[in-house]
Amino acid sequence: MAKIVIIDTIIEKELLKKKLEIQTFFLCEPEAEMPPYQHGTICMKILEARTEDYEIINIVILENEQKKVSIERLVEALELCYNFEPDIISMSIGTTCLKDYQKLSGVIQALNEKGIILIAAPDNSCKITWPAAMDSVIGVTCDWKERLKPGEIRTLEENIFGLDLVANANLEFKNEPVAFGQSNSYAVPIVVSLLNTCINKGIRGKERILTEIQNSFGTALAYEQLKYPEKTKLEIFDEPVVLCQGLHEEEFVPFIEWLWEEHMIQAVGITDDLQTDDFTLLARNRIGTDIESFVSTCLQKDLVLFSLNQNQSRLKWDVLIQGEEKQVVIKSAEEEIYVQTKDDQQWLGTLVNNLVEMLTE
């Protein structure tokens, strides 16, 4: 019998079809008058309809499904899992703040080393999300384009979002007062139900489970995200963009860390081929051809750094250069905060002053 931890809202046991003993641990106090069929309950109803022979532990970290939760509370919930020694940790929750990687990575790695399967959903807005994008976590998205039948699961080809599986969450439940529908978070219990079956058969470990799913259900699918929002060239970036000429890509990292630590400005660097686990740096060749749209819509950030050291033709520089005043921080040699060479000692202070003024006004 697999032991499953569900980190979510409270599971309303009285709304389940099966009589089930659920251990519940509260890291917050649920609201007294919240509507029925909270998120955790719906996930549990999907799970109970698709598998059996399991034990459930519910860690409540949300007062209700409309509330947001701090990254510290999510880390606390994951640390609590040490004591339970579960087989599966199910999280229909995550953070799009790229800097939260550092807060999550330690506890995620420790749980993974204990052989625990972690499964998580990305944000429905199509932004890169931790922990779903982490290598040691099974990231699950729903089948937004309806390529699969309801309840079907497939493995995904490698993608920059770090997602491993896709499931059609457009399920029908008769005689229920709420509609479930497509959502990344509802794809998670569909996959958890399959993982429960795998574990009860003695199949464990992320790679072995993914291999079993691919062998059972067929060829991996390409990841097809929601269509990028249509934007004009002048609107393509919502955040400031810095074009750094003469600044080596490796020098992005200390600058990005300094911006966050001193000014809480979250920046990402787009490079030719360097990429870091926490996505401080992203490689162009992994993003794909539509770099502008990806950066604009799929990353939660305040600032984008582009290197102009080489391969400048890979980007539509006119898009960057023609932006509105607040969208482009550096655009020509005449700009006062233009980075001309890495030997220029004046650029950093002027650049930061301008960035802080724009991003905090």
Q: Which SSEs are present, and which pair or pack?
A:
Layout: E1 2-8, E2 22-26, H1 39-50, E3 54-60, H2 71-80, E4 88-91, H3 101-113, E5 117-120, E6 138-142, E7 153-155, E8 165-167, H4 184-200, H5 206-217, E9 241-244, H6 252-263, E10 267-271, E11 281-283, H7 284-287, H8 291-298, E12 303-307, H9 317-321, H10 347-360
Parallel strand pairs: 1-3, 1-4, 2-3, 4-5, 5-6, 6-8, 9-12, 10-11, 10-12
Antiparallel strand pairs: 7-8
Helix pairs in contact: 1-4, 2-3
Descriptive overview:
It comes from Anaerosacchariphilus polymeriproducens. The protein is of the alpha/beta class and 361 residues long. It has two domains: 2-217, Peptidase S8/S53 domain (Rossmann fold), CATH 3.40.50.200; 233-360, Rossmann fold, CATH 3.40.50. 30% of the residues lie in helices and 15% in strands. The chain contains ten helices and twelve strands. It has helices spanning 39-50, 71-80, 101-113, 184-200, 206-217, 252-263, 284-287, 291-298, 317-321, 347-360; strands at 2-8, 22-26, 54-60, 88-91, 117-120, 138-142, 153-155, 165-167, 241-244, 267-271, 281-283, 303-307. The strands form two sheets. Strands 2-3-1-4-5-6-8-7 form an eight-stranded mixed β-sheet, sandwiched between helices. The protein has a four-stranded parallel β-sheet with strand order 9-12-10-11. Strand 2, helix 1 and strand 3 (54-60) form a beta-alpha-beta unit. Helix 2 runs parallel beside helix 3 (101-113). The protein starts with a strand and ends with a helix.
